[in-house]
What does this fold into?
Amino acid sequence: MDAVLHALADESRRTVLRILRDHEASAGELAEALPIARPGVSRHLRVLREAGLVDVRRDAQRRIYTLRPEALVEVDEWLGPYRQLWEGRLGALHTEIARGKKARR
It folds into this structure.
């Protein structure tokens, strides 16, 4: 999970994952979407590959990248208790807001 969290910590890598969430893309297409030089894009793609977040396949001269969402399962499970905590607190806030609106009527 540490490798996945490290990979997610960078904004450029999150941008790549956002693109790949919608469709597969070549390394060139991903490079066009980022404001960094190609060698930097290659390093980011390597980090994502090593973390298990993307797969790559060759298509003639191009490398095509696809998202591996299953790599996020462990992070999602780790976040579960925090999500429940916030959902509970937001539910309580919603209740208090509703009570306040009733009291003003």
About this structure: DSSP finds five helices and three strands in the chain. The CA atoms of residues 91 and 97 lie 10 Å apart. The beta strands are 25-26, 54-59, 62-67.
